[in-house]
Specification:
alpha/beta; Rossmann fold; 2 domains; eight-stranded mixed β-sheet; five-stranded parallel β-sheet; 21 strands; globular; binds cytidine-5'-triphosphate
Length: 419
Protein backbone atom coordinates (compact mmCIF):
# COMPACT_ATOMS: atom_id res chain seq x y z
CA UNK A 1 0.00 0.00 0.00
CA UNK A 2 2.79 2.44 0.79
CA UNK A 3 5.28 1.36 -1.84
CA UNK A 4 7.52 4.22 -2.91
CA UNK A 5 5.96 6.71 -0.49
CA UNK A 6 8.44 8.86 1.39
CA UNK A 7 7.24 9.46 4.91
CA UNK A 8 9.12 11.86 7.14
CA UNK A 9 8.33 10.76 10.67
CA UNK A 10 8.78 13.37 13.37
CA UNK A 11 9.22 11.87 16.83
CA UNK A 12 8.91 14.23 19.78
CA UNK A 13 9.60 13.82 23.45
CA UNK A 14 6.82 12.02 25.25
CA UNK A 15 6.65 8.55 26.70
CA UNK A 16 4.67 7.46 23.63
CA UNK A 17 7.92 7.88 21.66
CA UNK A 18 8.53 4.22 22.37
CA UNK A 19 5.61 3.45 20.01
CA UNK A 20 7.55 5.16 17.21
CA UNK A 21 9.64 2.01 16.84
CA UNK A 22 6.58 -0.13 16.07
CA UNK A 23 5.20 2.60 13.84
CA UNK A 24 8.47 2.76 11.85
CA UNK A 25 8.54 -0.98 11.52
CA UNK A 26 4.91 -1.19 10.28
CA UNK A 27 5.39 1.64 7.76
CA UNK A 28 8.58 0.06 6.42
CA UNK A 29 6.87 -3.37 6.19
CA UNK A 30 4.22 -1.76 3.98
CA UNK A 31 6.85 -0.41 1.59
CA UNK A 32 7.29 3.17 2.82
CA UNK A 33 10.68 4.88 2.77
CA UNK A 34 10.73 6.33 6.29
CA UNK A 35 13.05 9.17 7.36
CA UNK A 36 12.98 9.96 11.05
CA UNK A 37 13.59 13.36 12.58
CA UNK A 38 13.72 13.37 16.37
CA UNK A 39 13.46 16.26 18.76
CA UNK A 40 16.21 16.48 21.38
CA UNK A 41 13.81 15.39 24.12
CA UNK A 42 12.60 12.39 22.12
CA UNK A 43 16.11 11.00 22.52
CA UNK A 44 15.43 10.69 26.25
CA UNK A 45 12.80 8.06 25.45
CA UNK A 46 14.11 6.15 22.44
CA UNK A 47 17.47 5.93 20.71
CA UNK A 48 18.39 7.10 17.24
CA UNK A 49 20.01 3.74 16.65
CA UNK A 50 16.70 1.89 17.12
CA UNK A 51 14.91 4.04 14.54
CA UNK A 52 17.86 4.08 12.16
CA UNK A 53 18.05 0.29 12.27
CA UNK A 54 14.33 -0.08 11.61
CA UNK A 55 14.18 2.46 8.77
CA UNK A 56 17.63 1.84 7.29
CA UNK A 57 17.92 5.60 6.91
CA UNK A 58 19.95 8.09 8.93
CA UNK A 59 18.03 9.70 11.78
CA UNK A 60 18.22 13.48 12.09
CA UNK A 61 17.80 15.76 15.06
CA UNK A 62 20.33 18.54 14.60
CA UNK A 63 19.55 21.18 11.95
CA UNK A 64 23.25 21.80 11.44
CA UNK A 65 24.20 18.17 11.05
CA UNK A 66 24.75 18.36 7.28
CA UNK A 67 25.90 14.93 6.18
CA UNK A 68 25.55 15.40 2.42
CA UNK A 69 27.23 18.61 1.18
CA UNK A 70 25.16 18.61 -2.02
CA UNK A 71 21.90 19.31 -0.17
CA UNK A 72 20.55 21.21 2.84
CA UNK A 73 19.12 18.43 4.97
CA UNK A 74 15.94 19.99 6.28
CA UNK A 75 14.99 21.37 2.87
CA UNK A 76 15.89 18.11 1.18
CA UNK A 77 13.75 16.05 3.56
CA UNK A 78 10.92 18.59 3.32
CA UNK A 79 10.97 18.32 -0.49
CA UNK A 80 11.35 14.56 -0.51
CA UNK A 81 8.32 13.89 1.68
CA UNK A 82 5.00 12.61 0.39
CA UNK A 83 3.75 12.98 3.94
CA UNK A 84 5.15 14.39 7.16
CA UNK A 85 3.77 12.52 10.15
CA UNK A 86 4.50 13.67 13.69
CA UNK A 87 3.92 10.81 16.13
CA UNK A 88 3.91 11.28 19.01
CA UNK A 89 3.19 15.01 18.82
CA UNK A 90 3.68 16.66 22.19
CA UNK A 91 1.87 19.81 23.34
CA UNK A 92 5.17 21.61 22.78
CA UNK A 93 5.61 20.72 19.12
CA UNK A 94 1.90 21.39 18.46
CA UNK A 95 2.37 24.85 19.96
CA UNK A 96 5.46 25.49 17.85
CA UNK A 97 3.72 24.32 14.68
CA UNK A 98 0.68 26.50 15.37
CA UNK A 99 2.88 29.55 15.83
CA UNK A 100 5.34 28.87 13.03
CA UNK A 101 8.39 28.43 15.25
CA UNK A 102 11.40 26.66 13.81
CA UNK A 103 14.05 26.06 16.45
CA UNK A 104 15.11 22.52 15.62
CA UNK A 105 15.40 20.16 12.67
CA UNK A 106 11.82 18.88 12.90
CA UNK A 107 10.03 22.22 13.22
CA UNK A 108 12.24 23.72 10.50
CA UNK A 109 11.36 20.85 8.17
CA UNK A 110 7.68 21.28 9.04
CA UNK A 111 7.81 24.89 7.92
CA UNK A 112 9.77 24.07 4.79
CA UNK A 113 7.57 21.26 3.52
CA UNK A 114 4.66 21.58 1.12
CA UNK A 115 3.70 17.95 1.71
CA UNK A 116 0.58 17.08 3.70
CA UNK A 117 1.15 16.94 7.44
CA UNK A 118 -0.51 14.69 10.01
CA UNK A 119 -0.04 14.68 13.74
CA UNK A 120 -0.79 12.08 16.37
CA UNK A 121 -0.97 13.92 19.70
CA UNK A 122 0.02 12.25 22.96
CA UNK A 123 0.01 13.92 26.35
CA UNK A 124 -1.59 14.09 29.77
CA UNK A 125 -5.37 14.59 29.66
CA UNK A 126 -5.25 18.02 31.28
CA UNK A 127 -2.61 19.16 28.86
CA UNK A 128 -4.73 17.85 26.00
CA UNK A 129 -7.83 19.71 27.17
CA UNK A 130 -5.95 22.90 28.09
CA UNK A 131 -7.47 25.79 26.11
CA UNK A 132 -4.03 26.75 24.75
CA UNK A 133 -3.40 23.27 23.36
CA UNK A 134 -6.96 23.02 22.04
CA UNK A 135 -6.61 26.39 20.30
CA UNK A 136 -3.28 25.33 18.78
CA UNK A 137 -4.77 22.09 17.49
CA UNK A 138 -7.73 23.96 16.02
CA UNK A 139 -5.31 26.31 14.25
CA UNK A 140 -3.47 23.36 12.76
CA UNK A 141 -6.64 21.61 11.66
CA UNK A 142 -7.93 24.80 10.07
CA UNK A 143 -4.70 24.88 8.04
CA UNK A 144 -5.37 21.37 6.80
CA UNK A 145 -3.13 19.41 9.16
CA UNK A 146 -4.58 15.92 9.63
CA UNK A 147 -5.30 15.09 13.26
CA UNK A 148 -5.11 11.49 14.40
CA UNK A 149 -7.01 11.88 17.62
CA UNK A 150 -5.57 10.29 20.74
CA UNK A 151 -7.44 7.48 22.42
CA UNK A 152 -8.80 7.34 25.93
CA UNK A 153 -7.52 5.10 28.66
CA UNK A 154 -4.94 4.81 31.37
CA UNK A 155 -2.18 7.31 30.65
CA UNK A 156 1.45 6.82 31.60
CA UNK A 157 1.08 9.66 34.11
CA UNK A 158 -1.55 7.62 36.00
CA UNK A 159 -4.58 9.60 34.86
CA UNK A 160 -7.41 8.01 32.93
CA UNK A 161 -8.60 10.12 30.03
CA UNK A 162 -7.88 11.30 26.53
CA UNK A 163 -4.28 11.73 25.50
CA UNK A 164 -2.95 8.26 24.73
CA UNK A 165 -1.27 8.20 21.33
CA UNK A 166 -3.25 6.20 18.80
CA UNK A 167 -1.87 2.67 18.34
CA UNK A 168 0.71 2.30 15.52
CA UNK A 169 -1.54 -0.08 13.54
CA UNK A 170 -4.37 2.45 13.54
CA UNK A 171 -2.00 5.24 12.50
CA UNK A 172 -0.78 3.10 9.61
CA UNK A 173 -4.42 2.53 8.60
CA UNK A 174 -5.04 6.28 8.55
CA UNK A 175 -1.90 6.83 6.46
CA UNK A 176 -2.87 4.09 4.00
CA UNK A 177 -6.38 5.45 3.68
CA UNK A 178 -4.96 8.91 3.09
CA UNK A 179 -2.78 7.71 0.20
CA UNK A 180 -5.45 5.49 -1.30
CA UNK A 181 -7.96 8.36 -1.28
CA UNK A 182 -5.42 10.67 -2.84
CA UNK A 183 -4.64 8.16 -5.56
CA UNK A 184 -8.23 7.36 -6.36
CA UNK A 185 -10.02 9.07 -9.22
CA UNK A 186 -11.98 12.20 -8.38
CA UNK A 187 -15.44 11.20 -7.29
CA UNK A 188 -17.13 13.29 -9.98
CA UNK A 189 -18.68 10.56 -12.07
CA UNK A 190 -22.35 11.39 -12.16
CA UNK A 191 -24.41 10.59 -15.26
CA UNK A 192 -21.65 8.70 -17.01
CA UNK A 193 -21.28 9.92 -20.58
CA UNK A 194 -22.48 13.40 -19.68
CA UNK A 195 -20.51 16.60 -19.83
CA UNK A 196 -17.93 16.05 -17.12
CA UNK A 197 -16.38 19.47 -17.35
CA UNK A 198 -19.78 20.91 -16.56
CA UNK A 199 -20.26 18.48 -13.71
CA UNK A 200 -16.91 19.33 -12.25
CA UNK A 201 -18.17 22.90 -12.13
CA UNK A 202 -21.67 22.09 -11.00
CA UNK A 203 -21.24 24.03 -7.78
CA UNK A 204 -18.78 26.61 -9.05
CA UNK A 205 -19.24 29.92 -7.25
CA UNK A 206 -21.50 28.36 -4.62
CA UNK A 207 -20.71 28.36 -0.94
CA UNK A 208 -21.54 25.02 0.66
CA UNK A 209 -21.63 24.81 4.44
CA UNK A 210 -21.30 21.27 5.82
CA UNK A 211 -21.41 20.05 9.41
CA UNK A 212 -19.97 16.68 10.40
CA UNK A 213 -19.26 14.47 13.40
CA UNK A 214 -20.85 14.14 16.79
CA UNK A 215 -20.95 16.97 19.31
CA UNK A 216 -19.30 16.59 22.69
CA UNK A 217 -21.22 17.74 25.74
CA UNK A 218 -18.89 18.01 28.71
CA UNK A 219 -19.79 16.65 32.14
CA UNK A 220 -16.43 17.46 33.76
CA UNK A 221 -12.85 17.90 32.50
CA UNK A 222 -12.45 14.18 31.75
CA UNK A 223 -15.95 13.04 30.83
CA UNK A 224 -18.44 13.92 28.16
CA UNK A 225 -21.53 12.74 26.34
CA UNK A 226 -21.24 12.06 22.64
CA UNK A 227 -22.67 9.69 20.04
CA UNK A 228 -21.58 7.16 17.44
CA UNK A 229 -21.11 9.59 14.56
CA UNK A 230 -17.76 9.07 12.82
CA UNK A 231 -17.97 12.16 10.60
CA UNK A 232 -17.55 10.04 7.46
CA UNK A 233 -20.79 11.16 5.77
CA UNK A 234 -20.17 14.87 6.36
CA UNK A 235 -16.54 14.55 5.25
CA UNK A 236 -17.62 12.74 2.07
CA UNK A 237 -20.10 15.54 1.30
CA UNK A 238 -17.48 18.24 1.89
CA UNK A 239 -14.94 16.45 -0.29
CA UNK A 240 -17.32 15.88 -3.20
CA UNK A 241 -18.71 19.44 -2.96
CA UNK A 242 -15.15 20.72 -3.37
CA UNK A 243 -14.61 18.43 -6.37
CA UNK A 244 -17.77 19.90 -7.87
CA UNK A 245 -16.21 23.35 -7.64
CA UNK A 246 -17.88 24.67 -4.48
CA UNK A 247 -16.32 26.91 -1.90
CA UNK A 248 -16.70 24.59 1.09
CA UNK A 249 -16.80 25.52 4.75
CA UNK A 250 -16.66 22.40 6.91
CA UNK A 251 -17.56 22.56 10.58
CA UNK A 252 -16.64 19.36 12.38
CA UNK A 253 -17.31 18.19 15.90
CA UNK A 254 -15.83 14.95 17.28
CA UNK A 255 -14.83 12.55 14.50
CA UNK A 256 -12.94 9.28 14.21
CA UNK A 257 -10.75 10.20 11.32
CA UNK A 258 -8.83 12.95 9.66
CA UNK A 259 -10.90 15.29 7.50
CA UNK A 260 -10.28 15.47 3.73
CA UNK A 261 -6.73 16.67 3.26
CA UNK A 262 -7.21 19.83 1.25
CA UNK A 263 -10.17 21.34 3.08
CA UNK A 264 -10.27 24.01 5.71
CA UNK A 265 -11.99 22.63 8.77
CA UNK A 266 -13.39 24.58 11.66
CA UNK A 267 -13.37 22.37 14.75
CA UNK A 268 -16.07 22.69 17.38
CA UNK A 269 -16.93 20.70 20.48
CA UNK A 270 -20.45 21.18 21.76
CA UNK A 271 -23.83 21.75 20.09
CA UNK A 272 -23.69 25.34 21.29
CA UNK A 273 -20.28 25.92 19.69
CA UNK A 274 -21.54 24.34 16.48
CA UNK A 275 -24.59 26.59 16.54
CA UNK A 276 -22.45 29.71 16.87
CA UNK A 277 -20.03 28.56 14.14
CA UNK A 278 -22.89 27.73 11.77
CA UNK A 279 -24.56 31.09 12.34
CA UNK A 280 -21.32 32.89 11.44
CA UNK A 281 -21.33 31.16 8.04
CA UNK A 282 -25.03 30.92 7.31
CA UNK A 283 -25.89 34.30 5.77
CA UNK A 284 -23.79 33.95 2.59
CA UNK A 285 -24.12 30.18 2.18
CA UNK A 286 -25.96 28.78 -0.82
CA UNK A 287 -26.33 25.20 0.38
CA UNK A 288 -26.27 24.12 4.02
CA UNK A 289 -25.96 20.43 4.82
CA UNK A 290 -26.38 19.42 8.44
CA UNK A 291 -24.85 15.96 8.47
CA UNK A 292 -23.59 16.32 12.06
CA UNK A 293 -25.11 14.30 14.87
CA UNK A 294 -25.93 17.07 17.29
CA UNK A 295 -26.68 16.19 20.90
CA UNK A 296 -30.29 16.88 21.80
CA UNK A 297 -29.40 17.38 25.47
CA UNK A 298 -26.37 18.57 27.40
CA UNK A 299 -25.51 18.47 31.12
CA UNK A 300 -27.16 21.34 32.96
CA UNK A 301 -23.90 21.96 34.85
CA UNK A 302 -20.34 21.39 33.68
CA UNK A 303 -18.11 20.60 36.66
CA UNK A 304 -14.81 22.46 36.62
CA UNK A 305 -12.99 19.62 38.38
CA UNK A 306 -13.35 15.87 38.02
CA UNK A 307 -16.54 14.61 39.69
CA UNK A 308 -15.84 12.20 42.53
CA UNK A 309 -17.70 8.95 43.05
CA UNK A 310 -20.11 9.56 45.92
CA UNK A 311 -22.98 7.10 46.12
CA UNK A 312 -24.46 4.00 44.50
CA UNK A 313 -26.38 6.06 41.96
CA UNK A 314 -25.85 9.36 40.31
CA UNK A 315 -28.32 11.62 38.55
CA UNK A 316 -27.20 13.82 35.74
CA UNK A 317 -29.53 16.64 34.87
CA UNK A 318 -29.69 17.36 31.16
CA UNK A 319 -31.13 20.36 29.40
CA UNK A 320 -32.15 20.69 25.77
CA UNK A 321 -29.67 22.08 23.27
CA UNK A 322 -30.64 24.49 20.50
CA UNK A 323 -31.95 22.62 17.47
CA UNK A 324 -29.58 24.17 14.94
CA UNK A 325 -31.38 22.88 11.86
CA UNK A 326 -34.78 24.03 13.09
CA UNK A 327 -33.31 27.42 13.87
CA UNK A 328 -31.79 27.69 10.38
CA UNK A 329 -35.12 26.63 8.90
CA UNK A 330 -36.74 29.62 10.59
CA UNK A 331 -34.00 32.04 9.51
CA UNK A 332 -33.43 30.90 5.95
CA UNK A 333 -33.93 33.21 2.98
CA UNK A 334 -32.31 31.90 -0.20
CA UNK A 335 -30.28 29.10 1.44
CA UNK A 336 -30.98 25.55 0.29
CA UNK A 337 -31.24 23.59 3.51
CA UNK A 338 -30.57 19.86 3.82
CA UNK A 339 -31.09 17.90 7.01
CA UNK A 340 -30.33 14.34 8.00
CA UNK A 341 -32.37 11.89 10.04
CA UNK A 342 -30.97 8.72 11.50
CA UNK A 343 -33.85 6.49 12.48
CA UNK A 344 -34.33 2.92 13.60
CA UNK A 345 -38.04 2.60 12.74
CA UNK A 346 -40.88 4.35 10.85
CA UNK A 347 -38.21 6.05 8.74
CA UNK A 348 -40.49 7.74 6.23
CA UNK A 349 -42.94 9.10 8.79
CA UNK A 350 -40.20 10.54 11.03
CA UNK A 351 -38.26 11.89 8.07
CA UNK A 352 -41.21 13.75 6.62
CA UNK A 353 -42.20 15.10 10.00
CA UNK A 354 -38.62 16.41 10.55
CA UNK A 355 -38.44 17.93 7.08
CA UNK A 356 -41.61 19.90 7.72
CA UNK A 357 -40.82 20.85 11.34
CA UNK A 358 -37.32 22.03 10.46
CA UNK A 359 -38.35 23.67 7.17
CA UNK A 360 -35.74 21.81 5.09
CA UNK A 361 -35.60 21.68 1.31
CA UNK A 362 -34.39 18.09 1.37
CA UNK A 363 -34.06 15.53 4.12
CA UNK A 364 -31.74 12.53 3.91
CA UNK A 365 -33.05 9.63 5.97
CA UNK A 366 -31.35 6.42 6.84
CA UNK A 367 -32.32 3.42 8.86
CA UNK A 368 -29.26 3.00 11.07
CA UNK A 369 -30.43 -0.43 12.20
CA UNK A 370 -29.70 -1.79 8.69
CA UNK A 371 -26.35 -3.38 7.93
CA UNK A 372 -24.01 -1.07 6.02
CA UNK A 373 -26.07 2.05 6.80
CA UNK A 374 -25.40 4.87 9.19
CA UNK A 375 -22.68 5.44 11.73
CA UNK A 376 -19.05 4.31 11.34
CA UNK A 377 -19.63 2.46 8.05
CA UNK A 378 -18.03 3.30 4.69
CA UNK A 379 -21.40 2.85 2.99
CA UNK A 380 -24.88 4.19 3.44
CA UNK A 381 -28.39 3.39 2.28
CA UNK A 382 -30.55 6.48 2.21
CA UNK A 383 -33.84 7.88 1.02
CA UNK A 384 -34.05 11.56 0.14
CA UNK A 385 -37.32 13.38 0.75
CA UNK A 386 -38.71 16.79 -0.11
CA UNK A 387 -41.97 18.38 1.04
CA UNK A 388 -43.94 16.30 -1.49
CA UNK A 389 -42.44 12.95 -0.46
CA UNK A 390 -39.78 10.52 -1.63
CA UNK A 391 -37.41 11.94 -4.27
CA UNK A 392 -34.60 9.36 -4.38
CA UNK A 393 -34.36 5.89 -2.88
CA UNK A 394 -30.68 5.02 -3.24
CA UNK A 395 -29.31 1.48 -2.96
CA UNK A 396 -26.44 0.66 -0.59
CA UNK A 397 -23.45 2.65 -1.88
CA UNK A 398 -20.23 4.31 -0.76
CA UNK A 399 -20.75 7.48 1.26
CA UNK A 400 -18.99 9.51 -1.44
CA UNK A 401 -21.48 8.23 -4.00
CA UNK A 402 -24.36 9.19 -1.72
CA UNK A 403 -22.73 12.61 -1.44
CA UNK A 404 -22.55 12.91 -5.24
CA UNK A 405 -26.21 12.07 -5.70
CA UNK A 406 -27.27 14.44 -2.97
CA UNK A 407 -25.16 17.35 -4.21
CA UNK A 408 -26.26 16.82 -7.78
CA UNK A 409 -29.89 16.93 -6.69
CA UNK A 410 -29.28 20.06 -4.61
CA UNK A 411 -27.43 21.76 -7.49
CA UNK A 412 -30.24 20.96 -9.92
CA UNK A 413 -32.88 22.32 -7.57
CA UNK A 414 -30.87 25.40 -6.76
CA UNK A 415 -30.34 26.01 -10.49
CA UNK A 416 -34.04 25.57 -11.19
CA UNK A 417 -34.86 28.02 -8.41
CA UNK A 418 -32.61 30.75 -9.78
CA UNK A 419 -33.71 30.28 -13.40
N1 LIG B 1 -30.02 18.73 14.55
C1 LIG B 1 -29.58 19.99 14.83
N2 LIG B 1 -29.52 20.40 16.14
C2 LIG B 1 -29.94 19.59 17.14
C3 LIG B 1 -30.41 18.29 16.84
C4 LIG B 1 -30.43 17.89 15.51
O1 LIG B 1 -29.21 20.72 13.91
N3 LIG B 1 -29.88 20.03 18.40
C5 LIG B 1 -30.07 18.32 13.13
C6 LIG B 1 -29.11 17.23 12.75
O2 LIG B 1 -27.88 17.76 12.30
C7 LIG B 1 -29.84 16.54 11.60
C8 LIG B 1 -31.30 16.76 11.93
O3 LIG B 1 -31.35 17.84 12.87
O4 LIG B 1 -29.59 17.15 10.36
C9 LIG B 1 -32.03 15.60 12.51
O5 LIG B 1 -31.37 15.14 13.67
P1 LIG B 1 -32.08 14.05 14.58
O6 LIG B 1 -31.27 13.84 15.81
O7 LIG B 1 -32.43 12.86 13.75
O8 LIG B 1 -33.44 14.81 14.88
P2 LIG B 1 -34.10 15.36 16.17
O9 LIG B 1 -34.84 16.59 15.78
O10 LIG B 1 -33.11 15.51 17.26
O11 LIG B 1 -35.18 14.27 16.48
P3 LIG B 1 -35.16 12.96 17.39
O12 LIG B 1 -33.80 12.90 18.05
O13 LIG B 1 -36.28 13.20 18.33
O14 LIG B 1 -35.39 11.84 16.42
Amino acid sequence: MLNGKVIVLGVTGGIAAYKAATLCSRLVQRGADVHVIMSESAKQFITELTLQTLTKNPVYSDTFDERDPSVVSHIHLADLADLVLVAPATANVIGKMAHGLADDMLTTTLLATTAPVMISPAMNVHMYTHPAVMANMETLVSRGVGMIEPGEGLLACGYIGKGRMEEPDSIVEVVERFFSERNSEPAVKLDKGGDHSMEANLLHGKKVLVTAGGTIERIDPVRYITNDSSGKMGFAIAKVAKQLGANVHLIAAHTDEAPPADLNVERVGSAEEMYEAVLRQFADSDIVIKAAAVADYRPAQVATSKLKKLGETMTLELVKTTDILENLGQRKSSQFLIGFAAETNSVEAFAREKLERKNCDLLVANDVSQEGAGFRTETNRVQIYDAKGLVLDLPLMAKEEVAEQLLKLAAERLGRRSS
